[in-house]
Amino acid sequence: MLDLPKFKAAAVQASPVFLNADATVDKACKLIAEAAGNGASLAAFPEVFVAGYPYWNWIMTPVQGSRWYEKLYTNAIAVPGPEVDRLCLAAKENNCHVVIGINERGQSFGELYNTNLIIDNKGHLIGKHRKLVPTWAEKLTWTGGDGSSLKVYNTEIGPIGTLACGENTNTLARFTLLTQGELIHVANYISLPVAPPDYNMAEAIKIRAAAHSFEGKLFTIVSCSTVSKEIIDIMKEDVPNAEELLTRKNSAFSGFIGPNGAVIGEPLIDEEGIVYADIDLSKCIQPKQMHDILGHYNRFDIFDLRVNTAPRKNITFSDTQEDFRHKRQ
């Protein structure tokens, strides 16, 4: 008999200790313990929580922002690495699954990734997802990931997938996760007060989450960061009116969306904190009888989606001339 999991999930809405990886990991570990202490088996954290978002890309010139990129790079972390080990230990000690955004160092000083880590309740790093396409001004900071990280991970609480911020609007990326049996989707974001004046960021986040939940008949957990006074004060070093630019209502939304596309409980808007919801994956079954876009409500004789899941290689080394000729054929 099919017995789908039931569990409590936590969505963290918080700011990092800006550009301080060690202190931010300390904060994350405390929040994991708090969430688990309140009964959560899954804690979702914001995009690039370790150790912050490059807000300077939006409020400074590229030349001004260059020194801030250097600060971010030196506080980015390696995967695997000691900071990841600490997060895994916190997950294990608290018997809690964790999805958390980090800045991940690549192989060169110009290679930085917006990455989500997926850690199980045994403390194992079971996966990482690199954001496929940096959004707008983010291209000044991050390199895009590849299809190898478009995966769903089977855990004790169910199959988990994740996408970061704007890529939750990428229909093909979302469909790729759905086809792998995703029932728990973690969508993490940053608060972006510098959006156009008529853009309600919190509402836009909710719409994206509702679309994925309704189309895929699954649960979406949204975690968004906040802009702390610390971040604003640091940005004032180069932008005196940083407070005006980085302070705006309805810039952050954290909460839960059910398989019917409706919000579960009360979300957090702008304020730092943790919000909880009870998740029952059996609620994903009945809605699929109406619209199962992975099965009876699709036409795969008409549509054909192909996904390149091979890891990207920037360079291939050859030991011999003969080996080189063979690889070119």
From TrEMBL:
GO MF annotations, alphabetized: catalytic activity
InterPro entries per record: C-N_Hydrolase (IPR003010), C-N_Hydrolase_sf (IPR036526), Nitrilases_CHs (IPR044149)
Pfam family, one: CN_hydrolase
CN hydrolase domain sequence ranges: 7-281
Family: Belongs to the carbon-nitrogen hydrolase superfamily. Nitrilase family.
Protein name per Swiss-Prot or TrEMBL: Aliphatic nitrilase
Organism: Flavobacterium cyanobacteriorum
Lineage: Bacteria, Pseudomonadati, Bacteroidota, Flavobacteriia, Flavobacteriales
